[in-house]
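Suppose you are handed a protein chain with no further information: no name, no annotation, nothing but its sequence. What can you learn? This example shows the usual starting point.
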Amino acid sequence: MSGRPSILPTEDAFEDFKKQCLATENWLNKYDNNGMQVWIEVPENRGNSSPKVHKIKCKMTIKDVSAATMYDVIHDGQYRKNWDPNMLESFDIARLSDNADVGYYSWLCPKPIKNRDVVTLRSWRVMDDEYIIINFSVKHPKHPPQGHLVRAVSLLTGYFIKPTGPNSCTFIYLSQADPKGSLPKWVVNKASQVLAPRVMKCVHKAGQNYSAWKQQNSPDLKPWLYPEQSNLPMMDPADLSIQRADSLQNVDESSKKDALESEDSS
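A reasonable first move is to predict its three-dimensional structure. Written in C-alpha cells, the prediction is:
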C-alpha cells in the first residue's frame, strides 16, 4: 500500500453529505410542486472565489415506495437500462471495498451539444434506517477521456434516502457537477434546475416498477447489500486519483453546431 491518504470516503464525508442534504440555510428554493422541491446553494460571500457551477438539491416525498426499494433502484445497474432514457452506456469497472466501487457512465445531450461521460468512485452506507450513496470523479488508467465524448466531472453527487413509513420515504438527490465543454455556466445551472425534477420523476416511477421487474431478473442478486455476490475484480484505491475539473481540456462546441446544421441541410 502507498503512504498516500486513502481516496475512499470517510465517515466524516458521509456525515457531511447528510448534513448538506438536510440543511436549509444558504439554500434558495427554485421549485416546489407535487411533493418535489429543488434548491440551489447560495455560496457565502467569498468574492470571485465562489464556484461557478451551482450545487443543486432535489427533495422528493415518496408515498408509495419504500426507502429500501429506492436504494436498490439507484444501485441496480441492470435495471437502469430500463428506466434511464438518457443513458448511452454504463458499467461497473472494479470493486474497491465492500462498500465502494468505480464505474463508467455516459449520457445523451441535446444537439448540438456533445454527449458526456464520467468515471466515478461510488461509495455507500446503510445505518440507522437511512441510506447514503455518494460519488465523485476519478482518473482510471484504463478509462481515459475519449475524443467523441466530453469528460464531465462530478465534484460531489449522491443520494440520501430516509424511511417515513413501511412504504414511504424522503428521497434527496444532491449534486455539484461540471459538464466541461464550452457551455456557459448560466446554461448549465438553468438546465440542471429544469432537468432535475424530470429525472426525479423517472426515478420515482422506476421505484414503483422495480419489485415486479426484480422478481423476473435475478431476484436474490444484490451485491450492494451482499458484497460476497460481487464478481467484479478488486482494485487498489491507491491506483485511482481524484479527477480535477481544471485538468481537463475544455472542448469548443460552437463549431459543432455549424457542422450539425450543414449535415442537416445536406
